[in-house]
Amino acid sequence: MERLLVLARHGQSDWNLKNLFTGWRDPDLTDLGIEEARKAGRWLKGEGYGFDVAFTSKLKRAQRTSSLLLQEMDLTEIETIRSEALNERDYGDLSGLNKEDARQRWGAEQVHQWRRSYDVPPPGGESLKDTAARVLPYYIETILPRVMAGDRVLVAAHGNSLRALVMVLDHLNPATIAGLEIATGVPLVYRLNADTTVAMKTVLERHIDET
């Protein structure tokens, strides 16, 4: 039994490129983001991975990343489940603002605290702790049983919804999670033990000759 769980942050979005707080807003991928998603699929296929089911959020950038990745793997027919539980954290009043403009308005220290602290939410939005409160139950109740049953599982989601999950998988604490950045389009490959703990983790980033 493989007990395979692969996490993939969406490729670069239009608002990533423009340095805007995105949250639950719904921009599409850039050309670079499309290529990042496709490249992730080529990496995974090249390493011999396959999937039986994919989970993604209700937001376009994650859904399109999942679709493009699976196209590259010739797996377009597998079951795909979309859930709001996997959405990016809600940035509240910061959504749509340029990050540098936010620093000018509230100060760099305050904006950094909103972005990176575990339990301090931005005005009207979610902290990472709040995000984990919806991501983790969904993982435990819906995703993990599929992994433990032997399905090979892809989760295509967002920087903070995946940080909430990686925090538990990698046994990180509120202090160490602040420094974790999950790159766009780079799959994190987990193999789980029979007791649901992590047996092995691989960050799948390698050069592939595209010719």
Structural class: alpha/beta
Number of helices: 8
Distance between the termini: 35 Å
Strand order of the largest sheet: 3-2-4-1-5-6
CATH class assignment:
Alpha Beta
Order of helices and strands: EHHEHEHHHEHHEE
The count of strands amounts to 6
Number of domains: 1
Task: Describe the protein.
- By secondary structure, this protein is of the alpha/beta class.
- The protein has a single domain (4-190), classed as 3-Layer(aba) Sandwich (Rossmann fold), CATH 3.40.50.
- It contains 8 helices and 6 strands; from the N terminus they run βααβαβαααβααββ.
- Helix 2 crosses helix 3 and helix 6 (128-148) crosses helix 7 (159-169).
- It is globular and about 50 Å long.
- It starts with a strand and ends in an 8-residue tail after the last strand.
- Mean pLDDT is 94; it is low at 207-211.
Quick structural summary:
With 211 residues, the protein is of the alpha/beta class. The chain has one domain: Phosphoglycerate mutase-like (Rossmann fold).
Topology:
Elements (H helix, E strand, L loop, with lengths): L3 E6 L4 H4 L13 H16 L6 E4 L3 H13 L6 E4 L16 H8 L1 H9 L11 H21 L4 E5 L1 H11 L4 H4 L10 E5 L5 E6 L8
Parallel strand pairs: 1-4, 2-3, 2-4
Antiparallel strand pairs: 1-5, 5-6
Helix pairs in contact: 2-3, 4-5, 6-7
